[in-house]
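User: Can you model how copper (II) ion sits in this protein?
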Amino acid sequence: MTTTRMRQGALLVASVVVVLSGLWLSTQAFGAGAVYATIASFQFTPRVMVAHPGDMVTWTNNDNYPHTVTSDPSTISAFGPNSDVEYPNGIRPGQSYTWIVPVNAPVGVTWYYYCRFHGAPGDGTSFGQGMTGAVTIQQQQ
Ligand SMILES: [Cu+2]
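Assistant: Here's the modeled complex, given as structure tokens:
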């Protein structure tokens, strides 16, 4: 291979990298991020998640019992996670529930949630009792 060809090859690789990172950036700007949590041993892990407007937040039940992801009562709860919409009898073992953060979700807001079988709601600004978790909305980077 001549030096010229090697230079051309390197240029091609560099171009592909630039295009790919551009795609990645536009995907991020579009808000197609994904955040994951698991449910096991009557706990949400991680208990506190950080997401951005437009992100998909998915909980997967790896436990042996059904659980729910139920927003605490508050002014923002109507737009928060509510697994009953998809699974009225709870998220069964092996099932996943996905909530999409509203694209107009206020940055800095925290959705507190609980499992209505094994927990109790807080006042919308703090954890309730038993199985509880929270999703905090941060600014898109
Ligand atoms: Cu539960």
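A couple of observations from the model: The domain at 31-137 is CATH 2.60.40.420 (Immunoglobulin-like). Confidence is low (pLDDT under 50) at residues 16-29.
User: Helpful, thanks.
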